[in-house]
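In the design runs reported in the main text, the only information available to the sequence generator was the tokenized backbone. The following block is the verbatim input for one such run; it is reproduced so that readers can re-run the procedure and compare outputs position by position.
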């Protein structure tokens, strides 16, 4: 179920397989963490640099840890070379993603 949300509200699509949502990654942060919503995406700070897929790897591992799912359940489906990424998480719910927000 996908709904049109105004800017500043997280957009999450949930189906039988899991959820899809957007993240805005800030690499080279002092610590890993979710710091709110930017546009319609979760703003995610990561300590790794954006080279050789390090930030992408940390992004999927960190989200898997927070959502308590296996690393293999988290996939970047768009934005592999961008700060704006679309994430699919198998076995998670929209409520679980909302619960990540501070």
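Verbatim output:
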């Amino acid at each position: 179920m996908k709904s049109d949300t105004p800017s500043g509200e997280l957009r999450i699509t949930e189906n039988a397989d899991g959820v899809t949502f957007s993240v805005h990654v800030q690499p080279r942060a002092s610590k890993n963490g979710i710091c709110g919503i930017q546009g319609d995406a979760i703003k995610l700070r990561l300590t790794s640099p954006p080279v050789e897929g390090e930030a992408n790897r940390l992004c999927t591992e960190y989200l898997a840890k927070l959502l308590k799912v296996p690393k293999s359940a988290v996939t970047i489906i768009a934005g592999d070379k961008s700060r704006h990424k679309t994430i699919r998480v198998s076995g998670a719910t929209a409520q679980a993603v909302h619960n990540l927000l501070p």
